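Good morning C.,

I know you're traveling, so I'll keep this short. The sequence:
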Amino acid sequence: MIKLIKFYFFLLLILISSHAFSYQDFNVLKAEVTGRAVILDNNIEKAKRLALEDALYLASLKGGAFVDGFSSVSQNTIINDQSIIKSDSKILDFKILEENKNKNHYEIKLLAIIGNKNNSFKCKDKPINISIFKPKIIYNHSLPSFVIRSMYEWNNFFIDKISTNNQISLKKYNNFELDKIIKSSDNVEFDYSSNVDGIPSIEDGDYIVAPVYKVEPINFYRQVENPYEIAKYSIELNFFKGPNYKFFRTFVIEKEFQNRYPSNFKLISALTSKTNEEVNADVISGITDGITQIINKFNCIPIEANLKLINDMLYIDIGEKHGLRNRQIGIVKKNYQSGLKSNLDTTVMFISEINSNRSKLVPLNDKVKISKLDGMKIQFIE
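The tokens, ready to paste straight into the viewer:
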């Protein structure tokens, strides 16, 4: 029966390991366990494998497991007993500490890194590095002149608001058009001025954006119960990731506001319409809320980077300025272990040295062939 339970549990480990690559909200713990297996017919290799499976099984129990099942009973006698093990935990990686042959048993002691989903996980504040390029401004000429003039104030408010945010480090490239920079980075002959003036230096971990500010009427909202003319102000933010200008995602901040009360009588229209101050307050409130929502979404994005092999050591081109810390755990979504085979598909790494823009990483398991991790993506646990 114990062997059956272990079989189900090990099968679940394999299935769990195929889940999506998202580990930042894991609770992580370390466990030292010892697995044992009887040596039969002097088959040492089989005993090693069984001892390793036993150790991994015990380590998994350390991470928490739920045992459920049912029994078939006939005349007060159990004739069939079925057990199922359900677990939210996952062995991320392990390191064999000792191997011993003890009389008729083979023993393996290992250090395991175990993770399970934290259902109460809250995204943590982290630095956000943004390079902002020349914006585009679009407006409809049918709108009142005060709305178009106010639009420039709203644009400036947006920039000032993100510039003073403690989490955001902002670089301004107001004289550069992002679409030309992207094309110039691929083809230096595309845009003469960009190359003469110099293409801005974009680093790993930087986000690049050129805002599109837009204000437009949406008069189809006019109804009998709401006769006001309605307009919408929006900021479209198409973010790219450095240094290769790879498209990341789009955020949109938008705010609808009452434009004016149309009337054949100018006095009634003037008295009934919202004042410039009221419109400004309405739109600025929407911009403030939108910035807060975007920052919250950035906080929930896991920190990732690509490993680089330099002089037989692994590095990433991000560091403290991106929210990393020394000894922080990172997970690589592939396991390149030599020696004893494993059903695990992840490799745990630790930051051993860190500065502002670079970190050195070492694997938990010193048997990992680090050359095979070159170019692979690592995701960090917060």
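Safe travels,
E.
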